[in-house]
Amino acid sequence: MLPLAGRVVSRNGPRDGSLAILTNDMKRVVKEQRLGFYATVSEDGSPSLSPKGSTYVLDDEHLFFADIRSPQTVANIRRGSAVEVNIVDPFVRKGYRFKGTAAVHDRHTKVYAEGVERLREGGSTLIDRVRAIVVIEVHEARPLVSPAYDDGAVTDEEMIRTFQARFARVHEMSRSRGPA
Known about the structure:
Strand content: 25-35%
Order of helices and strands: EHEEEEHEEHEH
CATH architecture of the largest domain: Roll
Mean pLDDT: 90
Number of domains: 2
Helix content: 25-40%
Oligomer: single chain
Low-confidence stretches: 1-6, 13-19
């Protein structure tokens, strides 16, 4: 359940007067899902969208991901591109979008070491492949909610059952087709 539905939390202060940019529910969704879809702007002005499975909360105002194989995203950020991250629970069909600026922290920096340690604590098996830690300063956070909830006729539990069944069917079909 997303208690922030409809609220905008921004760097200038949330509209309802609370203090933290990243709420406990936002932190929960990031911790549970880890997979974020990162949008940046390429040098030619075109959008660049890339999934990152190493999204973590750094603190009340920052997210980070490990650059394992993100050359275009990192290049865009080094050039000063803004970042938007979408993290959604695919079963509940709810999540959050986070907008902000980012900085790349290369090996042999304190932030890199802290990020790698957080990955290690989280059970990552890709520590030796981390090239950099990218920290996003969140300036704005908004809830993402499927239009299926608009009329109030569906509950979170019903949505979960629907998508558990859908993913089970999809994965059963892929097993029956055999290796690609």
